[in-house]
Amino acid sequence: MTPNNNQEEFYKKLKEQLSDTSLWPAPYLYKFIVPTDLSKIKEIEDIFDHTGAVINRKESRTGKYTSVSINVRMKNPDAVIAKYKEVGKVEGVISL
Questions:
Q1: CA 77/CA 69 separation, integer angstroms
Q2: 87, 85, 70: which is closest to 15 by C-alpha?
Q3: For residue range 7-32, what is the model confidence (pLDDT) as tens digits?
């Protein structure tokens, strides 16, 4: 299987889980780990601009990485997945 197929399978399962466990619209917490680089962190934050998101950052003990937590009210599981895909384009980001 190519990584792309794995990714699509992951999103399909995520959509099913989100549909089964929440009534939409609902709050959703995204968590990302990114190398500590202000331009990359800003890229992630810009993706959630104008959404009413509450964004928290925390640098790792060594300062090499930053965790970015984003709490935001999303319309539906498709909207949640669309944001994951958008953030996935930022180089070096790990979605948790």
A1: 18
A2: 85
A3: 889 999 999 999 999 999 999 999 99
- Provide the whole-model pTM: 0.89
Contacts of 49 (CB under 8 A, 6+ apart): none
Is residue 96's pLDDT more than 80? yes
Contact in structure between 44 and 30 (CB atoms under 8 Å): no
pLDDT bracket for residue 6 (50, 70, 90): confident
- Rounded to whole angstroms, the Cα distance separating 19 from 8 reads 16
b/e sequence 76-96, b meaning 16+ C-beta within 10 Å: ebebbbebbeebeebeebeee
Helix, strand, coil in percent for the chain, rounding step 5:
40, 30, 30
Pairing of strands 26-35, 54-59: unpaired
